[in-house]
Amino acid sequence: MPHNLRMATYNCENLFSRPKIFEQTAKRSNQLLGYVAQLQEALKNDVFDHKRIKELEAKLRGFAIVNDLRGDHNKAVGAQEWMGGVELARADITDAAVKNTARVISDVNADVICLIEVEDRNLLQKFHDDLLQKDFLQPTARAGYTYILLLDGNDPRGIDVSFLSRIPVLSMQSHIHEFTEYEGKQVRAFSRDCLEVQLQAPDGKILYLKVNHFKSMGYSPKTDPQSIRRRLAQAKRVAELVDQHDLQNEYVIVAGDLNSDPTSPSMEPLVSKNGLYNVNLELPANDRGTFGTGKKQLDYLFISEALKKNLQSVHLERRGIFTKSKWKPYPTVKSKRTQASDHAAVIAEFILP
Asked: Which helix (H) or strand (E) element contains residue 194?
């Protein structure tokens, strides 16, 4: 009996939470931040002014708390008996742009969707439970996701790769520990990670998924202005990992935002790999772009020959991108501020034997 499988990748363009303080007016935010600074200073003193600390905590109720790591700041004489800090409370996920992100993911309705630029796993779980599933999946009778997974990567800003899956996850392996030489220095091979995942496909075979977010084209040294050489090294390493598989018989997918058009030299190790196929080639030549106005393809699903045999359709979900001329966005996408992302989602559908 044939088995349907829908795979997707989507750059969420920073699925991050925001401190509640920054949801206030500028005047109120500055006032609250002032209280935070005063509270931090009060907790550095050798002798605590407990009355003042309690006053500041009251002023910050709902916006910040004191996190006791060692000892209780309410009982400690001073900083020498206590260790901790002030933590900002995070706002609920109610922003229009985040809701549009959920709308895209719901309409993509993939069995497995790779999500790029996600802050952390707890946020992803909250996004799934409190917004995606509650407001978008359940009302449309679509299934939620059993596996909601993310490993912290190398980007200090918390820009991580992740995925949601309805099919069983068998194992995961990170490559954040790997180094390479760049500009005469040893640097982390992957700017974020190449997260390798083994899943159980609906037909019982193993699906080998490699989720990536290559180095951006910005923040580049003068000797490599577009970071082409950096991404080339990352593509070569992913190609080495792909070489561990029999592409004619094993289900393998390289997914994510690779920050290069297929014509870039940095993509050559993957574009020219025998047995590996860019699914966007199924689309008309002028309709393969995934970023902004669609002139460039930055987001990819590379699939092995074993999967290509079972490929049924490919399409892009662009309605989360704000544009006035290229295509019609969702009615709720009214500006770049409210767009879900500046990337389109790439979706591939398979019928497995």
From this structure: strand 194-200
